[in-house]
Design goal:
three-stranded antiparallel beta sheet, Aspartate Aminotransferase, domain 1, binds pyridoxal-5'-phosphate, Aspartate Aminotransferase, domain 2, seven-stranded mixed beta sheet, 2 domains, 13 helices
Amino acid sequence: MALCSNDYLGYAARPLVHDGAAGGAGASALIAGYGASHGAAEAALAAWVARPSALLFTSGYAANVGTLAALLGPQDLVVSDELNHASIIDGSRLSNATIRVFPHRDLLKAEALLREGRSGHRRALLVSESYFSMDGTVADLRGLRAIADAHDATLMVDEAHALGVFGPQGRGLCAREEIVPDVLVGTLGKAVGLQGAFVAGAEPLRQFLWNRARSFVFSTALSPALAAAIPARVQEVRAADAARARLLAMAERIRGVLLEHGVVPGGEGPIVSWTVGTPERALDLQARLREHGLWVAAIRPPTVPPGTCRLRITPSAGLSDSELDRVLVSLAAVAGTPLGG
Ligand SMILES: Cc1ncc(COP(=O)(O)O)c(C=O)c1O
């Protein structure tokens, strides 16, 4: 039983329903690869996150890299949380902007970096995940919005792990916190259970990325069949309050069992982080859980900083009650015995 996927609502295993939509786009969107199914998917996604427009990318990696490298250049400044995803790091590097990194969720430091760097740069961009994928921590989005505004900076928020999971109708943490980022990145391969991603924002942002995001311009457009599946899936996700509540309750039960056995899990919500330190300890734990029939991958550098190897346990609302009971019994057994390594 997998307890380490991002299929939070349990949709990923469902087959795609073919309604005649083509499997392949055949070309980049700018050439001939963009069709009615892409337009309808973008409209559904933009409406979901309540932004004027959205642009589809083939993955979250492509969305972050393409967006950052298009928006920023050597005259610009990017201020980034130290735990931001690799795609944010790579896009920032590719842009050749000045990169300043602040300690995780340290708004005072982020503000200081913006204050010190703002005047020497044409444009400043503050970027953060909303729900951090390896730690299960939540960004202070209102605080980020306030400091971006105070320093005339663009705010970019990656909602990859929050969409479908948090907020009214699963609209994410920006919606829950009632802030509007200038650039919102959402992925479709996690709670939405499909593949691909989108960048939502004002219409000029979409126009700009359409022409300038190289991972969009120079890449075959998303499969029309996949795009055709998006509007209905978004509708389902929006209506999935019961699954969201179930998911969060499951994660709390997992946290409870770990705590009862002396393990203090990190984060909140469906990403339960059990940090053990060395790679050997993480692999030992992975092997023991495997003996109990649980697949929880050991997370090691470069995905997480050295010394913070961990098990990242993520339930899915698709688990049955009896499966969850098995998970809890196994976790209790493994957490209750000392680790090797
Ligand atoms: C925060 C974050 N952004 C972006 C991505 C990349 O998304 P995708 O898997 O669609 O490329 C991930 C994937 O792990 C992620 O965790």
